Amino acid sequence: MRLLPILPFILDYPFLRPAKFLAENIQRGMVFNAALERAEEILESLLKRGHYEFKPEDKPFYCSACDKVCRDACDRDAIAEDFLWDRCNLCGECFLRCDYSISPESYREMEIRAKVSVYSYIMMRSAISRAGEGVRRRFATSLARSYRHAMESDQSEILPEILASNFSIKIIKNESLWVHVSDYLKAASRIKSPEWKLVSRNLRRGYVELDALGFYRVVEERMRDAFFEPFTIEIEGLESLMNIVTEYELSRKAGRIEGVKDFDLFPPCMRKIVADLKDSANVPHTARFAITTFMLNVGYSVEEVLDLFRNAPDFDEEKARYQIEHIAGQRGAGKEYDVPSCSTMKTYHNCVAECGVRHPMELYRRRLYEGRGRKAEGK
Ligand code: SF4
Ligand code: SF4
Ligand code: SF4
């Protein structure tokens, strides 16, 4: 049964290497929808509260009771009477060829739940990958800490070996857990606490003695780096997640967006571009074009739009003024440019939410009229 022994571990820890075999060919459907719902819940909690409570389950490790017919799949000679974890890099090839058998219903149920977990993890990574560095760091730190808490309550005896193989951390496990000094120092150098100084530890033959909590703290540092790394899998249909990211980014930057009148009426895509420009982020040309056309269309002057670009890392006043005036129809053939539609914004990855409109101006006008209506009611 494909991946059987590692499925329960992937279910709880979807970043494990063999999860890649479940992530092939992600398609819309029931599993996709369930994963998206889970991703929304986790991402919102991670960004707003800095934590999500994962609940690890009891996990059997079927390989312990098997005669290991998959042995030939391993080119690292890591499968003997038992698994030789110090040789294993958790490539997953043996688990792919697993022929251990459990009830098909239980297997199917486990596979679906593991897929939901993996998809939701990939969805979060994909949505967060387009955010600014501060938000990506918040995500990576919160997710790594949350998984560490899950590991601390996990009853699986084999979990340290699986994590060590996955993150290439050298360990020796006897009555204690020993972590190679180089792996220990990589983590300890970032932890500002006296007990993490090497002199405070028991060091023997190049390995540092740790308890399980200490080991999972080392793993947390590895996870934090892994979750912060650029992520290249792009998935369509994640607008609800991108909305969560955008709202969080905007809430962080709210103080720096003063001076942009009617900012609350701006569609999320335009708010994000303004926030990025104010934050001196490198904003792509298509997004600069979009915000320029939008602001000119809703009544901002060339001078006001120019002011918005002053924080851009490559700001050149003469060039920027020429481009804005050109878009405003004050130069060249006098053509005024339209605000790009939502579908064009999506094509260039400038759409950040699912607003139920076809054009950003439609949303702006709707908000403007609703605002006026509210004012009139208040009179
Ligand atoms: S066949 Fe291999 S992967 Fe499957 S349970 Fe046995 S040892 Fe584990
Ligand atoms: S997961 Fe480990 S034991 Fe299995 S094939 Fe890969 S290296 Fe060998
Ligand atoms: S749906 Fe349209 S208005 Fe909303 S964020 Fe996307 S591009 Fe902007």
From TrEMBL:
The note on the cofactor says: Binds 1 [4Fe-4S] cluster.
**What Pfam family does this protein match (any one)?**
DNA_primase_lrg
Which keywords are on file for this protein? 4Fe-4S, DNA replication, Iron, Iron-sulfur, Metal-binding, Nucleotidyltransferase, Primosome, Transferase
One GO term under biological process is: DNA replication, synthesis of primer
Q: Which GO terms describe its cellular component?
A: primosome complex
Query: Which species is the source of this protein?
Result: Geoglobus ahangari
Family, similarity comment: Belongs to the eukaryotic-type primase large subunit family.
Q: What is this protein called?
A: DNA primase large subunit PriL
Cofactor(s) named in the record: [4Fe-4S] cluster
Q: How does it assemble?
A: Heterodimer of a small subunit (PriS) and a large subunit (PriL).
Tagged with keyword Membrane: no
Mind telling me which CDD domains this protein's record contains? PriL
One term of GO molecular function? 4 iron, 4 sulfur cluster binding
Q: Which residues bind [4Fe-4S] cluster?
A: 269, 342, 351, 355
Which stretches make up the DNA primase large subunit C-terminal domain? 264-361
